[in-house]
Specification:
About 40% of the residues lie in helices and about 15% in strands. The protein is of the alpha/beta class and about 250 residues long. Helix 1 packs across helix 6, helix 2 runs parallel beside helix 3 and helix 3 packs parallel to helix 4. Bound molecules: nicotinamide-adenine-dinucleotide (NAD).
Length: about 250
């Protein structure tokens, strides 16, 4: 299997979940974690915004593992809650472009690179969406992040129809999860979103009916379920582990 953004946060938990069940994993990420990966995980350094890097990651998985059964599109960045009137148009355009290129174009290029191999193995794709794929503000999303995650929902639905009956395409849309998530600011994307963890955890709990902050390890099991035989009748579906935001 191949996971983008697998060096940190939700992606990292997905990598550990599959590796713990004996599945060999390739990670495409721009950074390698300082504490390394479990056995059976291969790191490919690269940028999801580049077609060639996505293709290199797929080729690596096929070369090492004899094929590709699961593609997890997950690498993403935030916009630190920037709303329409916070920035002049030119700066807002830069922000939108940066968020779009990782959160939407990156998913499309990963899917393109993986699709032929997944067709030949009757495999599946699982993408990380967000409560911001459905809600306007949710857990602190600004305009660029919300637009990108709504677009990613459209991408999941389109690919599910496009690739049926050969490849299933599903998604997980978490609510707030305390991770190393970074936000694009100007030309850089180095602002930590969860820089005040206790305060933010309180805000996440206050927002959802179950009063929970999601744990990446629990989320990871949902990805394995969607990629498994148990979900063989599901495509174009989104699991929403967000503490019940839809009923608020
Ligand atoms: N943390 C949350 O509250 C939350 C909630 C819902 C959805 N999400 C989504 O979960 C996904 C994972 O985010 P996370 O919270 O685990 O954050 P994270 O920062 O801990 O992990 C994201 C990983 O993606 C990598 N990455 C970012 N840009 C990249 C690029 N251009 N090329 C290659 N790798 C790149 C980063 O290096 C990092 O390892 C994202 O799509 C995010 O939008 C997060």
């Amino acid at each position: 299997m191949l996971v983008t953004g697998g060096s940190s946060g939700i992606g990292r938990a997905v990598v550990e979940e599959f590796a713990a069940h004996g599945d060999p994993v390739v990670v495409l990420d721009r950074e390698e974690p300082a504490d390394g990966f479990p056995d059976g995980v291969t790191f490919v350094g690269g940028d999801v915004r580049r077609a060639a890097d996505n293709e290199r990651a797929v080729t690596t998985a096929v070369r090492l593992h004899g094929g590709l059964g699961v593609f997890v599109g997950n690498a993403g960045i935030h916009d630190a809650g920037t709303t329409l009137l916070d920035l002049p148009g030119a700066e807002l355009g830069v922000l939108m472009q940066r968020v779009w290129e990782v959160n939407v174009l990156g998913y499309l290029l990963g899917a393109r690179a993986a699709a032929e191999e997944l067709k030949s193995t009757a495999g599946s794709m699982v993408f990380t969406l967000s409560d911001a794929s459905f809600l306007v503000r949710g857990n602190g999303a600004g305009v660029a992040y919300a637009v990108s995650k709504h677009a990613a929902l459209g991408l999941v639905r389109h690919l599910a129809a496009d690739l049926a009956p050969h490849v299933r395409v599903n998604a997980v849309a978490p609510g707030g999860v305390l991770t190393g998530l970074r936000a694009a600011v100007g030309e850089s994307d180095d602002r930590a979103v969860y820089d005040r963890p206790e305060e933010i955890a309180r805000a996440i709990r206050d927002l959802n009916p179950l009063g929970v902050v999601l744990d990446p390890g629990r989320l990871a099991a949902l990805y394995r379920f969607l990629a498994s035989e148990a979900a063989s009748g599901m495509t174009g579906e989104v699991l929403r582990p967000d503490g019940g935001l839809a009923v608020r």
